[in-house]
Amino acid sequence: MAASRAFWVVPAAMLAMGLTISTATSGKVSAKQVSFAVLALCLVVGVILLGSTLGGMRPLFSFWERDVLYRESFGYILDHPWTGAGFGHESNRHWHETVSSLKWIPHSHNLLLGYGSQLGFPGIVLILWIFWSLGRAFWPHLRHAHMEVRWLAMLGVVLVVAIFLLNMPNVYLVRHNAVLFFAHVGLLLGLVHSRTSPVQRTASVPADLPTEDAQPDPYRT
Q: Could you tell me which residue, 210 or 199, shows the higher pLDDT?
């Protein structure tokens, strides 16, 4: 995954997004934060340029394969707009290997086009709704009174958007990667709600439940 250009672009987007959200919610930004963000961005761009120059990565601005693949994949969705090929990663692999111009690529290399190929346009709507719902669950807590809750919410928003961006030029949200993503989102949501929801410390006892004094004691004389 580290040989993918998208892998290195996404951390840069996460840093920029985190800095923006932190500034918007706190109303201030320190010179240290800006310096760290600029340094990290330069490091990410340097890794991409170095990798594409020395080998191991594709050239930074080489996207001709994606252009052909995306156009043909969208054409497949237009031919199967409501049902697709059926749910499952690479469910239309046979089409890619026999009909597509890029027969060595077994799937659409895009999350939206992938779900569109599987389930038609309803699949695209479904995956967009899932990510929007996850982001919306964190968003209201970005201005919470407690800093810890704000940071947890910010991590949640950044994680959701970053994984969505990472899966635009390729598809990593499958199998164990998908489980890991949703597990982390659930963990962050659980931490947010545990710090914002009131805890019920007392339990109500039914009125008709007899007390200990009302129970007959066979050993009492």
A: 199
DSSP 110-174: SHHHHHHHHH-HHHHHHHHHHHHHHHHHHGGGGG-SSHHHHHHHHHHHHHHHHHHHHTSSS---S
> How confident is residue 172, by pLDDT bands cut at 50, 70 and 90?
confident
Place of tokens 């201030």: 28
DSSP of 50-76: HHHHHSSS--TT--HHHHHHHHHHHHH
Token pair recorded at residue 145: 């009174």
Q: What is the pTM of this model?
A: 0.76
CA 212-213-216 angle, to 5 degrees, is 90
Separation between Cα atoms, residue 102 and residue 65, nearest integer Å: 8
| The predicted structure's pLDDT at residue 53 | 56
115 Cβ contact list (under 8 Å, min separation 6)? 123, 124, 126, 127
Cβ-based burial of 160 (10 A; exposed 0-12, middle 13-18, buried ≥19): buried
pLDDT tens-digit series, residues 45-93: 676 666 555 555 555 555 667 888 899 999 999 999 999 999 988 888 8
Q: Tell me if 79 sits within 8 A of 92, measured CB to CB.
A: no
Q: Hey, is 202 helix, strand or coil?
A: coil
- Coil, helix or strand at residue 212: coil
The residue with tokens 């931490």 is: 191
